Amino acid sequence: MAKTKRVITILLRLLALGATVAAVVVMVTTHETANVLNLTFKAKYDNTPSFKYFVIAEAIVSCYTLIAIILSSKSLLWRLMVILDVFMAALLTSSISAALAIAYVGKKGNSHAGWLPICGQVPKFCDKVTGSLIAGFAAAIIYMLLCLYSLHAVLSPLLGVKP
Amino acid sequence: MAKTKRVITILLRLLALGATVAAVVVMVTTHETANVLNLTFKAKYDNTPSFKYFVIAEAIVSCYTLIAIILSSKSLLWRLMVILDVFMAALLTSSISAALAIAYVGKKGNSHAGWLPICGQVPKFCDKVTGSLIAGFAAAIIYMLLCLYSLHAVLSPLLGVKP
Questions:
Q1: DSSP letter string over B41-65?
Q2: Where is the signal peptide (chains A, B) (predicted)?
Q3: Do residues A15 and A8 touch, judged by C-beta distance below 8 A?
């Protein structure tokens, strides 16, 4: 039973690692240059603080996930890891929300604030950012599952016992 | 000991309730009209999807917190509440991140995308939004503390026991 739990946890972590690494690589390698009214502008992730935050958060979670996979055999650390998993889930949720909010303005604009959509000028950049955000979203879902699984495993032996 | 825990939890929930209700009230009641080049524009929270999401999320957490305070004497539900607390913390984190990302563009603009800052035109609106975001941020921190406190309480009796 403990072995099944460990295998499921490691599988979930491997999936999360794949998703976060994909999100970082796609976001960092994406750039597109466009000409608008004789002005050249280059769309890159580091022009937008939210996308920078997204890349940094996904990179931190990638590193943590890798360390967690390596250390998962040392069960002494499991209590610390339950707490850190919750933090990583929060970090992923926060970064994907901030990046999505900006990506939405990039796609649809905001007529009330006078912000025009930019996806018409840099369609490839937008497509790749969308891909990166989907990967980040998948990572956040996987970490949520990981947290629920840890919490369930922690809470179930206490069935009926008052806190 | 169990009584101290309950008192601390209820106190934290009351603080969170105050913060989320303040965030919703300030955000919803804020609007400002500005004249730019003979065009009138009205700044309101529901012109921005991220701010709408922020208000809805804070309202949901307010309702949940109120119910949690009322039901906290019924200890049968405490396991469900640990899980729901984590969800509420994630919802708060997500909504504050999305709203902050947009507020930052409103304050600083984004020259690369050609989005101009709007806080020069509607300074009062910006100040009140900032206030609302600070309240939302406080609520998120309080919920994080609540989760850590629950997790600590759940994990500490298992000291040294393998999962």
A1: EEEEGGGSHHHHHHHHHHHHHHHHH
A2: 1-23
A3: no
Q: Quick one: DSSP state of residue A116?
A: P
Whether A80 and chain B come into contact, CB under 8 Å, resolves to: no
Rounded to whole angstroms, the Cα distance separating B93 from B77 reads: 24
- Name residue, tokens 């999962």: B163
A28, A45 contact by CB (below 8 A): yes
CA distance A12 to A67: 14
A-B C-beta contacts closer than 8 Å = 130
Q: What kind and span of H or E run contains B32?
A: strand B31-36
Q: Is B122 on the interface with A (CB under 8 A)?
A: no
Distance from CA of A120 to the nearest CA of B (A): 12
Q: pTM for the full model?
A: 0.87
ipTM above 0.90, yes or no: no
The model's pLDDT over B21-79, given as tens digits with 9 standing for 90+, comes to 999 999 999 888 877 666 777 788 888 899 999 999 999 999 999 999 888 766 667 77
Which residue bears the tokens 């604009």?
Answer: A109
DSSP H or E stretch at residue B33: strand B31-36
DSSP A16-56: HHHHHHHHHHHHHH-EEEEEETTEEEEEEGGGSHHHHHHHH
